[in-house]
Amino acid sequence: MRRGRFIALSVLLDAVFINAGLVLAFFVRFGGQLPAFNFNAYLSTAPLITVIYLVGGYIYGVYEPERTENPWAVVRAVLSAVTLGAALTAAVLFFGGLRFASFSRLAIVISWFIHIGLLVGWRLSFLRISAVTWPEQHVLLVGTGPLARELAGELRARGRWGYRVVGFLSDTEVEPGAPPAGSIDGLPVFGGPHEASRIVSEQRVDRVIIVSPIALRELIESLVIAEEASVRVDVVPELYEVFIGTVDSMVADIPLMEITRQTVPPWFAAAKRLLDLSFALLLLVVLSPVVLVAGFVVLMTMGRPVFFVQERVGKDMRPFKIIKFRTMVRDAERETGPVLAADSDARITPLGGLLRRYRIDELPQLLNIVRGEMSFVGPRPERGYFVEQFAAVIPGYRERFKVKPGVTGLAQVSGGYATTPERKLKYDLIYMYHQNLPMDAQIVIETLRVVLTGRGAR
């Protein structure tokens, strides 16, 4: 059985056995009877109690097979989880006052023994008759010191979890293309750190663990931004990195920090999408007179087309059509080809300058937000022509496409209009990896300040 299915089955069976154990405890407590006065108190709180016990299981790693690798570990994890669940359930019932006074406290004590037997019993029985399989992970270790060798040994000992150590890279540079530099504990040393991209491709590596992150920053950046390397990158953190980051996983007692993690959890992305859609629809209604007037003035003074539609690169490098009011002369790039706009751009008409100054030209992008192509806050979308140029020379540039582009962003309220792409990227990455709803609100408020005063970053 696959790991994910086993975890889902564990949660489902635990929920069933938690409630079965409580019902059985009531039978024992009341001599084979289920008196309504007492049992109804359980029925009214069963969903809450189930969640409490499942959370206890999560806290003590019951749903992480890697942490329950032998029968004693299973017993220890279940014992801790059931004890926490029983204590929290008793606390909830106690502080619930008269409403839960009829819930038998003795039944909770009896259920403690029953739950341990049921939850341990089904796990050990299931694991005896059905093997749990993990997706295979090809792991490349960067470093050849004692810690790298210890890590390799721990991973190989956990081979049943899918770990396959393909070998090592030396943490010191060797001549490019040189043959493998020997082996360690039967595993090859492929060469120096700059061989990483080639080895990742040739050995079909899924995960790179770097034991000396400070000395190999350039390698880390190249792995993270390599277009072909959809590979997880972990580092064994130094002390200062622990202060500014979080430990994402452990192998035995060796902590690891993932540097290719998702920028935000799924719940945050869903909440942000809901807010984007709600406010975009509201603003389309409220600002419709401004949109109509702006469109009419553009038509009367600049002629057709009223709207400027251009292909931009969005999340996951997917192209989309951005919509704005036209602010430049017709065919502005006919003679020059693609050119980035500047502070004093002769192609911008007087009306266009006014629309840009107060961000009115951006209002049609509310439609892009409704269609899910953009967000209110995020890195500004760029044209494919410039994306190719920047990605070729700016390390980490492709990272900004992990999130939806925005109508405004941290770079737009923090830097000048002519800020270099490198500096804008730093603002984008700061936002991406630290974003939260208060930060979004602050950026929107700062954007409104820029709009109302007609000055500041664009």
Q: Can you describe what's shown?
A:
The chain is α/β, with parallel strands linked by helices and 458 residues long. The chain is built from 16 helices and twelve strands. The protein has helices at residues 3-29, 36-59, 71-95, 105-129, 146-157, 196-202, 217-225, 239-244, 266-286, 288-302, 350-357, 365-370, 384-393, 410-414, 421-434, 437-453; strands spanning 137-142, 163-169, 183-184, 187-188, 207-210, 232-235, 249-251, 254-258, 307-313, 319-325, 375-377, 406-408. A six-stranded mixed beta sheet has the order 2-1-5-6-8-7, sandwiched between helices. Helix 1 (3-29) packs antiparallel against helix 2 (36-59) and helix 2 (36-59) packs across helix 3 (71-95). The chain is flat, with a radius of gyration of 29 Å. The mean pLDDT is 81.
